[in-house]
Specification:
By secondary structure, the chain is of the alpha/beta class. Helix content is 34%, strand content 30%.
Length: 286
């Protein structure tokens, strides 16, 4: 793996008697998209807030871009950008003025606003009030705001939640473009198909604990059930069978079908991430 851009070591966060994050550890390589997956309330957003210094950990440590995370260190915070789930924009200001407002807050050149709008494909909506933009455009504007200071690392909390399929696809395309340009991205999501498309590696978090970690392919091979979908000729037509690839009885049945010459088609079928998640977590994602 490339040198680590994000490191979590034994992070713990409690709220009263409830442990929201329970000793999680993982690393994200430079230029990687890493997904933190889990159902609502699993600890994804709390983990993100610990990694960005918005919450103080009760135990453990976090490093981003080689620096220990502390809420009081502006030089560390300047290394990353964050987009949380809430779309907190100034609706009466134009897209450009929303970004220029943040440029002024952080003493950045105002020209960064138009650069960021172009980067997320909103240059033609620079003068439009933020309140008039579609939900997908507003999400792109939030990402543009997080990119104003040209951060090395980008944290995205449920970036496509509530978006229609077209807008969600646009955000996924943008995230992949940012990765190709060298950004390191950690995203939280409960959408397993999205994680399968975007993430080079991911971790399942359940009840504040990481229960599995690896590439989507590794997780599906390690935890999913390998099956063959077989279409068999019958006297009255055709019949579909599902045979386990690791099952001796299925292997014997398949051998018999081959011998009888009854197989019309045969395809291997990989487990889905959802099936893996159900196996690991004992429930479906919300």
């Amino acid at each position: 793996m490339a040198s680590l851009a994000i490191e979590a070591e034994g992070l713990v966060r409690r709220f009263g008697k409830r442990t929201a994050v329970d000793g999680i550890s993982f690393g994200v390589g430079q230029g990687e998209i890493f997904g933190l997956l889990g159902p609502n309330g699993a600890g994804k957003t709390t983990s993100l807030r610990l990694l960005t210094g918005l919450l103080r950990a009760d135990a453990g440590r976090a490093r981003v871009a080689g620096r220990e995370i502390t809420a009081s260190d502006p030089s560390t915070i300047a290394k990353f950008g964050v987009v949380f789930e809430e779309q907190n924009l100034y609706d009466r200001l134009s897209a450009r003025e929303n970004l220029r407002f943040n440029c002024r807050l952080f003493d950045l050149p105002l020209s960064r606003a138009d650069e960021a709008l172009a980067l997320v494909g909103l240059a033609d909506r620079a003068k439009s009030p933020a309140g008039s933009l579609s939900t997908g455009m507003r999400q792109r504007l939030l990402i543009a705001r997080a990119l104003l200071h040209r951060p090395e690392v980008l944290f995205l909390d449920e970036p496509t939640r509530g978006l229609d399929p077209i807008a969600a696809r646009e955000i996924r395309t943008l995230v992949e473009e940012l990765r190709r340009e060298g950004a390191t991205i950690l995203l939280t999501t409960h959408l397993l198909d999205e994680a399968d498309q975007l993430c080079g590696r991911l971790a399942f978090i359940v009840d504040g604990r990481i229960v599995a970690e690896g590439s989507p392919r590794e997780l599906k091979l390690a935890h999913g059930r390998r099956v063959l979908s077989v279409l068999v000729a019958e006297e009255e037509g055709e019949r579909a069978l599902e045979l386990g690839m690791d099952d001796a009885a299925s292997a014997q049945a398949l051998s018999g079908l081959f011998a009888d010459g009854r197989i019309r088609s045969i395809h291997s079928q990989e487990a889905s991430l959802e099936e893996v998640f159900v196996e690991m977590a004992g429930r479906r994602p919300d």
